[in-house]
Amino acid sequence: MAKRTGAMHVSTIVARRNGKEYVSHLVRRSFREDGKVKHETLANLSALPDTAVAAVRASLSGAPMMAADERLEIVRSRPHGHIAAIWAQAHALGLPGLLGPAGRERDLAMALIVARVARPGSKLATTRWWTDTTLAVDLGITKASTDNVYAAMDWLADRQDRIETQLAARHLNDTVNPNRLALFDLSSSWMTGRCCPLAARGYSRDGKKGLPQIEYGLLTDPLGRPVAVKVFPGNTADPTAFTAITEHIKDTFNLGQMVMVGDRGMITSARIEALKELGGYGWVTALRAPQIAALAAEDGPLQMSLFDQTNLAEIAHPDYPGERLIACRNPDLATERARKRLALLAATDTNLNTIAKAVAAGRLKGAGKIGIKVGKVIGKHKMGKHYTLDITDTTFTFTHDRDSINAEAALDGIYLIRTTVPAATMSADRVVATYKSLANVERDFRSLKSIDLDLRPVHHYTETRVRAHVFICMLAAYLVWHLRAAWTPLTFTDENRPQPADPVAPAQRSRDADRKAGTKKTRDGLPARSFIGLLEHLGTLTRNTIAITGTDTEFELLATPTPEQRQAFELIAAPIPLHLK
User: Fold this and answer.
1) In a domain, 152, yes or no
2) DSSP at 35
3) Which label site among 37, 113, 131, 356 has the fewest CB atoms less than 10 Å from its CB?
4) Are 272 and 259 in contact (CB under 8 A)?
């Protein structure tokens, strides 16, 4: 006979006889004899109260038992839910593997990315913050110094090209992106200090005058998912940045055929010639106002009769060989431009009248001085083209140039898109939608700079650290893009935005989105939140360290998740983990 060994356990037996149910609680030991599992009954607990049976069951299963004079004490409580959700999404995307081999540098780099999503701040503030959460303790970086963080940034910067090449292969290949479209746009952020060689004065898209800045170009897939970022000196022109990124795509990413989508300030005629020299590269962009005016001349192909029945028409012109020109007219945009022009003219008239009165009263004399004052006024609102000015040493008069105003008004709401994509590959409607998808990049910039990630201002002084900082923010934006997409049912984001029948018309919200905005409730009746609000709510899901007083025993326990917190993890297809690793 086999030796009867094995752990004891409480087994509950339910039997039904003569219409009645009998429940027995037996203490048993299981063992194997002659290849068969058998059970030995050691005691019958059926006569004991349910609470006593539960206590015996817990004790036999190894749960710690408390004496009557013992109690539980929460000795530590750390925010966990938002960290765990971001970490789970990062692992679902394979982000740790993209960064490089496992090690302390990768853990620190991952912590910087997760912290940038959860609570953006300076590197010093971040190292202080993450010790109060589960992030630092789970990754073993509670004692990481600022020098350790900078070393991890340098490590990440050295791997940027390899990481971005993998992202480009993942999101720009012809399987998931059959039209080989890539969106690109440029933005800027101001710097603190003046030691970084990248810091320079240039056109500030942030409206921060008098401060040095850097510029950075963001490359995304057609949906606006960040793929790569490139940092430039603060005085870099848009066309120069565009040339650099296209060469980077071709040489580093080994993508020989792409269609670049950029605005008219980015993809200029000179840049188009450079694209032609690269070979295999097409474009989707728009024409500038003087080019549109030339096509709208009396003998040109752009006539207002094209828009009698539709707001979209395709034309051709020998100045654009091998290209398609799609003319669009947006009535709402036309109305807004007319309103804005009248308002700017009225504001300019008011200021010019003030100058004219000063000249007439003799308080302002000299053609040079008068001209400087007038130049500042008309330059402020960029209305100089619509005025005829007469300035002498003692007089100043002005009138509206009606021909210039009427010529501009005739083209209100009209824009032309130029592309090399053939009609067999992409319809005119789709070309318009593709150009308008540049709004996705603008949304990414808002997320990077202010809404989610607070990229600006930049505090680092070395070129490598500045590039690493922007790259960390880009990888965080990659995470945010996926989290926002997954959490649309819990946020105010429109889950099913309708496709407009007219591609030129403004986008419309769905009824569900209007209902969410009005009721502040999701479809399931849960509170609807902003993305940041949802992260903050997830942060209230804490991991608690509990001690049994009078003993050395401690154990960890998650707070009970709210329905919103449970659904947030379900939407990213992840369980709520007790530990990150």
Assistant:
1) no
2) T
3) 37
4) no
